[in-house]
Amino acid sequence: MTLPETPSFRLDGLRAFVPGGSRGIGLGCAAALAQAGAHVVIAARGQAGVDQTVAAFRDAGLSADGVTLDVANLAAVDAVLAEHGPFDILCNAAGIARHAPAASTTPEDFDAVMGINLRGAYFLAQKVAAGMARGGSIIQISSQMGHVGGIDRAVYCATKHGVEGMTKAMAIEWGPRNIRVNTVCPTFVRTPLTQATFDNPERRAWIEEKIKLPRIAEVEDIMGAVLFLAGRASAMVTGTSLLVDGGWTAD
Ligand SMILES: NC(=O)c1ccc[n+]([C@@H]2O[C@H](COP(=O)([O-])OP(=O)(O)OC[C@H]3O[C@@H](n4cnc5c(N)ncnc54)[C@H](OP(=O)(O)O)[C@@H]3O)[C@@H](O)[C@H]2O)c1
């Protein structure tokens, strides 16, 4: 009797594009993919962050290149893909937040967050998928806020609910080309983006009350989910969302 074999989690020979990979969750995603054998191209707006990250990857013996990019600039996305593409994996972690009550949201903040978190994510997926001639895996780092609401987070929630919706529609459209499209939805993770939230005692109490597991999430908690969705172990998984929320949305 031949036993079924667990599909490998290795990504050797594959090329991965990680916008937002210079720090925080994206850095963890890029490290997970590179440690599994992929060549990663890390993109972010800040040159210094990209350079430091790529140097750390290379020092660790990992295969990485870096490029400065604002994902809201679609012509710049085209130029990066022309130079560094095509890719087998897109893991998009580029994102921002400008939290405020819905009653006082400005059009400027609305457009800035939408432009990166939703419009940027949409066209990154469209443009990277265009080059995925042998199939591929698109992973959007969405959020638990793509499934629920949160205090002062109307715009942020709008972008992440949008990412959830477009992911399902793209999965339907590109499934026949063997391009899988999924999201990873973290709870609050300690990163530069969430420093102000964790520094606010009221918000910190809200987070600790809502997360069912007895601790705050770290970047490492997201890495396994990304690795799973990138490779063969998830070959029949598309159009869905992997919540890494410590049980936040369970009630
Ligand atoms: N931390 C959390 O608790 C949490 C929870 C759920 C979901 N998320 C999501 O996870 C993603 C990453 O969050 P994070 O906490 O890791 O944030 P972070 O620490 O602020 O890192 C954000 C990364 O995205 C890059 N970036 C931002 N705007 C960009 C743009 N326009 N073009 C290209 N790169 C850009 C940043 O580099 P530059 O500033 O140099 O461009 C950086 O590399 C976001 O989509 C966020 O919404 C975070």
UniProtKB/TrEMBL annotation:
<dbReference type="GO" id="GO:0016616">
    <property type="term" value="F:oxidoreductase activity, acting on the CH-OH group of donors, NAD or NADP as acceptor"/>
</dbReference>
<dbReference type="Pfam" id="PF13561">
    <property type="entry name" value="adh_short_C2"/>
</dbReference>
<keyword id="KW-0560">Oxidoreductase</keyword>
<dbReference type="InterPro" id="IPR020904">
    <property type="entry name" value="Sc_DH/Rdtase_CS"/>
</dbReference>
<protein>
    <submittedName>
        <fullName>2-deoxy-D-gluconate 3-dehydrogenase</fullName>
    </submittedName>
</protein>
<dbReference type="InterPro" id="IPR036291">
    <property type="entry name" value="NAD(P)-bd_dom_sf"/>
</dbReference>
<comment type="similarity">
    <text>Belongs to the short-chain dehydrogenases/reductases (SDR) family.</text>
</comment>
<dbReference type="InterPro" id="IPR002347">
    <property type="entry name" value="SDR_fam"/>
</dbReference>
